[in-house]
Each structure stands twice: as C-alpha cells, then as structure tokens.
Amino acid sequence: MVDKIFEISLRQRMFVLIGMLALAGGGVWSALRLPVDAVPDVTNVQVQINTAVSALSPEEVERQVSFPIETEMAGLQGLEEVRSLSKFGLSQVTMIFSDGTDIYRARQLVSERLQSVLGELPVGAQPKLAPISTGLGEIYFYTLDYRADATNKPPTRREQLLELRALQDWFVKPAFRSVPGVADIETCGGYEKQIVIQPNPQKLFAVGLSFEELAAAVRENVENAGGGVVSKGIEQITVRTVGRVRSLREIAELPVKFGAGVQPLLVKDVAEVGIGSAFRTGAGTVNGQ
Question: pLDDT, tens digit, for every residue of 59-97?
Fold first, then answer.
C-alpha cells in the first residue's frame, strides 16, 4: 500500500504539489480566523437575573425575591437547572439551558416570564438581565486615581474616592461601553456619591412628623410636573412646574409642614442635608490600599 502511494506521488508530481499548496493555503486561512483566548470560555448557556433590593436581610431576599423568580422560571423550554444566591440587598438567579440553545431566544423567554412576577416583588425591586458575558469574559482591569502632583484633588481620601467613583460612572464607563465587543463594565471600590438627608428624631417628634412624612414631603418636591398647554393665537405655550432641586441648599429650604406660623417648617429645621455615600458591601484594593 505504501509502495503504491509513493509510486502515484512520483508519477503525479504536479497534482501532489497543487494539493500541498491548497492544504497550506487552507491552514493559513484557518489560522488567521482561529479564535484564540488565554482562558477559553467554557461556560454553558446561561441567563442571569440580578435584583437589587435595599434594606432586606438574606432570608427576606430569598423569600420575597429569589423564590418567586425561581418559581416563575420553572418549565422554560430547554431549561436544565436553576440556582440562586440571596444576600443582603441582592438577589441573583441563574438559569442554565441545554447546550445549543440560542442565547437570545433564552433571554427573550426569560424576559417574558419576568414580566409576570414583577407585581409580586417588593416595592422598588427592579430585576435586570445580566450582560451576555461571564466571569471568564473579563479582559481588562484598570484603576482610577489622582496623580501625585495633582493640584485639584480633594484634601481627604474619602472625598477623593467619591470624586473618582463619580468620574468612573459618568465618564469612563460610558466611553468604554461604546467600544465594539465590550458587553459591560463592572465597577468596584470607591464611594457612590449621594445626597443624604439625616433626620433628627427629637425635632421630628417635637413637631409631630414621622420619617415617612418627611420622606414623602421631600419626594413630592423634587420633581418637575406638567400642567398642560395654553393656546395663544397660533402658538401653544406649555405650562409646567419646575421643582427639581439643583443644590443642597434648595433641598434644605424645602417646606415639609405648614402650621399656624407665618413661615412653613423646612427640611433644615428637622434634618441635616449633606453629601454622603451609599452603603458599602465590598471594596476594591490596589497594591494593598
């Protein structure tokens, strides 16, 4: 058999040469289009639902959020496994589908089922589908910090972390998300800047106000509202109330109660208004810092 192969190869030299060139060309073509990754993503087809819920313990998150979502997702076409993670302020439900399932069809089915369970979740809970990516899809880590000779950095490290987190959320993250092929940007560390209203319980009790009444008064006075349209000749004038606050002082000056006095009771009379941060549940470290 081997002798015949050698004999044919020697007699059909041009045919062998053409075949060799074709194989070499096919190899080069395949090599240029071969996906190469340091850590190949071997994750199965999965859809993940993340729900942020504030001020709920892990037991309450499991009972009020994770369990209703898991129950609603049961029976989806191609679904093989459902697992969940419930911890303080967060519910994470992961659904594993059979190999070969179209990920976009799976996400569509999950989105349709998710609409049916929204009414059963706690007020303020907003489930969101995770990006089409897994932990093995992380391709780049970066940090933001002030240069040692920077003249515009805040004096304290906490204030610096507040500004760096705001810079990440409002400028760096949107810029990176516009890069083709990037599914999402995960932010870790820093402090998420918030406007914090710290009520004084004694002052609230003295004027007969509760925490909920104070929160409702602030909530109702920080949004714009439309009032309709007034026709004037050939023009239409939009009527609206501008109530959105723009500074800490405007929040402090919001009225919360009207009594017998000439001046209404203001937010600053029963609470302190300042810049704070959201509750931290983790941290990021760089070089041990």
Answer: 999 999 999 999 999 989 999 999 999 998 899 999 999
User: 79 near 97, Cβ under 8 Å?
Assistant: yes
Reduced 3-state DSSP string for 72-100: HHCCCCCEEEEEEEEECCEEEEEEEECCC
Structure tokens given for 279? 């509750």
Q: Is the pLDDT of residue 286 over 90?
A: no
- Nearest-CA neighbor of 266 among 282, 285, 250? 250
pLDDT tens, position by position, 218-233: 888 777 777 788 888 8
Q: What is the mean pLDDT of the chain?
A: 88
Tokens of 103: 């990920």
Provide the pairing of β-strand 193-199 with 255-257: unpaired
Report how far residue 55's alpha carbon sits from residue 46's, in angstroms, rounded to the nearest whole number.
28
Q: Which helix (H) or strand (E) holds 47?
A: strand 46-52
Please report the sign of the dihedral spanned by the C-alpha atoms of residue 74, residue 51, residue 139, residue 281.
negative
R_g of the chain, CA atoms, integer Å: 30
**What's the confidence (pLDDT) of residue 37?**
64
Q: Would the pLDDT of 134 be above 80?
A: no
Instruction: Give 210's DSSP letter.
Output: -
Q: Indicate whether this model's pTM tops 0.70.
A: no
Runs of H (alpha helix) within the chain = 2-11, 13-32, 58-61, 67-73, 103-117, 157-167, 173-177, 201-207, 211-220, 248-252, 267-270
CA 261, 221, 194: angle at the middle one, nearest 5?
Answer: 115
CB 157 within 8 A of CB 145: no
